[in-house]
Every structure is written in C-alpha cells, then in structure tokens.
Amino acid sequence: MQTFDQLLNKYGESHQNSVNKLIHWICIPAILFSLVGLLMHIPVPEEVSFNAYKNWAGLVLALSLIYYARLSFGMFVGFSLISLLLLNTNLILINFCGARDCNSIWILLLIFTFAWIGQFVGHKIEGKKPSFFEDLQFLLIGPAWLLHFIYKKLSIPY
Fold it and tell me: Using CA atoms, how far apart are residues 148 and 8, in angstroms rounded to an integer?
C-alpha cells in the first residue's frame, strides 16, 4: 500500500500546469458539492427519517472518512468538517428549492456536469489523463491533494 505522501505525489504528477490546477480548485469542490446533493436526493427507506445526515450522501461520506482516517488523522479531521459543510449547504439548497418553484436536482446535475467538463478541459491543457483512470482511489485523493495545500499554508500537519 502506498503512503499518503506517495499518493499525493503521484496525483500531483498530472497536475503541474497552473491552469489545470486552478480548474481543479474550482471543479473538485463543485463536484463534491453536487455529488453530495445528488446522493441526498436518492430516496431512503421509510423507517429512516430524512435529514442532513441520514441519507445516501451521509453513508458515502462516512465510508470516505474511513478511507481518510486510514491515510491520515489530519485529513480525517479536515474531511469530517468538509462533510458537515457539504451536507448542510446541500440541505439549505434543497430546502430553498423546495420552498420555491425550482428543482435542486437540475441545479446539481448542471454543476456536476460542467465541473467534470472543466476537469477534462484542464487535463487536455495539461496533456495528461486524469489520475483516476489508473486507480479509482485517486477520486478521493484529488480532494485531499487540495486540502493538503491548505494545511501546508496554515502549517497544519496532515
């Protein structure tokens, strides 16, 4: 098993171009936000009351937190906070749209689609294919790669 730093370095190899990096700073959070929101729309069994945490997004985020905990306690803490933020901001969007004549699913699908298009444009500019084509765990390393830059800037160990 590769170490966390090895995974970050491997991911970083296909993210050297400054335009691609900027695109990733915009698109990765957008993908996370929209994916969590879309997962929140999948119906849960009737015996589970829907709220910001008891839904498919909460389950997927909990499983991803186990992955981050195995890599780094610092990433686990950071993504615990990010997970709460993603769940709660999506709940705000869902409730906002529910009270008005808009459909949050379409908003989230647009964000998700345009963010992925942005990712592929960034990799076209970079001239390298996305890392997750080689190993699916890089879908989880991408967000950690961004967070590790924030941690470094703030001198927080990860």
Answer: 9
Asked whether the predicted pLDDT for residue 51 surpasses 90, the reply is no
Percentage of the residues of the chain whose pLDDT score is greater than 90: 81
Distances (CA, A) of 97 to 38, 55, 58, 100, 154: 14, 18, 20, 5, 36
Contact criterion met (CB below 8 Å) for 146 and 25: yes
Classify residue 19: in a domain, yes or no.
no
Q: Is 25 helix (H, G, I), strand (E, B) or coil?
A: helix
In a domain, 20, yes or no: no
Token pair for 62: 């909990």
Structurally, how many domains does the chain consist of? 1
Instruction: Give the position of tokens 């908003």.
Output: 107
102, pLDDT greater than 80: yes
Alpha carbon separation from 155 to 3, 8, 82, 133, 147 (Å, rounded): 20, 17, 18, 32, 12
Q: Are the beta carbons of 39 and 56 closer than 8 angstroms?
A: yes
**Nearest in space to 38 (alpha carbons), one of 127, 104, 100:** 104
